[in-house]
Amino acid sequence: MIHFTQVSKIFQGKPAVDDLTLQIAEGEFAVLIGTSGSGKSTTLKMINRLIEHDQGKIYFAGEEIQKFKPQDLRRRMGYAIQSIGLFPHWTVEENIATVPQLLKWPRARIRDRVTELLELLHLEPDLFRRRYPHQLSGGQQQRVGVARALAADPEVLLMDEPFGALDPVTRAALQTEIARIHHLSGRTIVLVTHDIDEALALADRIVLLDQGRIVQQGTPLELLTAPANDFVRDFFGRSDRGIKLLSLATVAERVRPGSADGEPIAAAMSLREALSVFVARGSESLPVVGEQGEALGVLHFNDLISQQALS
């Protein structure tokens, strides 16, 4: 889907991206992460030619990106950023419809698409369609920004620190929505973040960058359990590796037959979230339910902190 071959970008004589070779498969959720100045945002912006690369080649859908007009390329790629960039004097519907209008979609099709996206992102269409950005919370504005990026059904969704300015609760809710959208659509997503927990929660594959080069790439589990060197080990944290590993597994993977008292937890919850529930309740076991609220069994605290769970 997206292929970098020995790509470099030079700013003021210094490489921001240095001889980068990277492949992102169709349908993959790839997360670019690294310290400030590692080249992750530059890498993302070269995909849709917001920044032009200086050396090497970048391919999209089998074609070198230089063969596309920038505007044609960008219409095939949704782009969501931290600052959102909604037009303040346009309604929510007009903002979402930006690209479909440029593509001259029929008015009825645009309206239907806006309705579909508002529902997908849990914004009631009748309530939000005619509102203006200043009438929305930060989280609602970010949802509209994501809807606008998805409006023309792009082949790729590029996201540059999209949730960085949000409070933790809103951020977690939007991360869940993006994961759900990826699951439903199978769309290729490339996300830039500095948040390790966000990368671990969302990525099919993490690409860790430092000084414009790839230090290591792989699944979240691979980077936590088989770090390539001390930089990777330190970046993901030596002391709390066990806690991070809990975020990669779900309650469903540890549930046992039986029953327990108290409010049930969802089988889809991560073991890290379950640990927080255990600590808050001071309990040794929790009842577990499925998507439809059906009883599935019990999660024991001792199973959660076993060597098997943390190794």
UniProtKB/TrEMBL annotation:
SUPFAM superfamilies: CBS-domain pair, P-loop containing nucleoside triphosphate hydrolases. Pfam families: ABC_tran (PF00005), CBS (PF00571). Residues 2-236 form the ABC transporter domain. Keywords: ATP-binding, CBS domain, Ion transport, Iron, Iron transport, Nucleotide-binding, Transport. Coiled coil: none annotated. GO terms for molecular function: ATP binding; ATP hydrolysis activity. InterPro entries: AAA+_ATPase (IPR003593), ABC_transporter-like_ATP-bd (IPR003439), ABC_transporter-like_CS (IPR017871), CBS_dom (IPR000644), CBS_dom_sf (IPR046342), P-loop_NTPase (IPR027417). The keyword Transport applies. Residues 255-311 form the CBS domain. Gene3D superfamilies: P-loop containing nucleotide triphosphate hydrolases (3.40.50.300). SMART domains: AAA (SM00382). GO terms for biological process: iron ion transport; quaternary ammonium group transport. Belongs to the ABC transporter superfamily. This is ABC transporter ATP-binding protein.
